[in-house]
Amino acid sequence: MSLDTTLRLLAKASGMTASDIAAAIPRAGAATVKSWMSGDKLPGKDQLFALARAFGVPAGALLSELATTLDPARTKGEHDLLAAYRELNTRQQGALLEVARSMAERRRRSR
């Protein structure tokens, strides 16, 4: 789940508005929080930890998706493939994984 989606869900579950969240975050106004929740901007490290404290969740709950998004080892194609995979239903995801594993196995055998 993306960081902006996670933030929106946590805000809704806790009954917090962007203004409420901003009050708990250093150097962040309601407009900044709204831009995080819409996915237009990303919070900094200190702000992420403050968000985690404000929502009462481990920072890792916020950072896991962000870390995979910023993983420098991933190519643009890998990011695109992952984004497309997430748009599929469970049956389609299973079929895609089966095809990918089959292709990888054939490649290993041909080496």
3D structure, described in words:
72% of the residues lie in helices and 0% in strands. The protein contains seven helices and no strands. It has helices spanning 3-14, 18-23, 30-37, 45-55, 59-69, 76-86, 90-110. The relative contact order is 0.10. The mean pLDDT is 85.
The total count of helices amounts to: 7
User: What structural class do you assign from the helix and strand content?
Assistant: mainly alpha
Helix content: over 70%
Q: Strand count, sense and closure of the main sheet?
A: none
Principal-axes geometry comes out as elongated
Gyration radius (Cα, Å) is 18 Å
Mean pLDDT: 85
How many beta strands in the DSSP annotation? Answer: 0
Strand content: under 5%
Terminal CA distance: 36 Å
Residue runs with pLDDT of under 50 for 5 or more positions: none
Helix and strand succession? HHHHHHH
Quick take:
The chain is mostly helical.
Attribute tags:
mainly alpha, 72% helix, single chain, 111 residues, elongated, 0% strand, 7 helices
Topology at a glance:
Elements: H1 3-14, H2 18-23, H3 30-37, H4 45-55, H5 59-69, H6 76-86, H7 90-110
Helix pairs in contact: 4-5
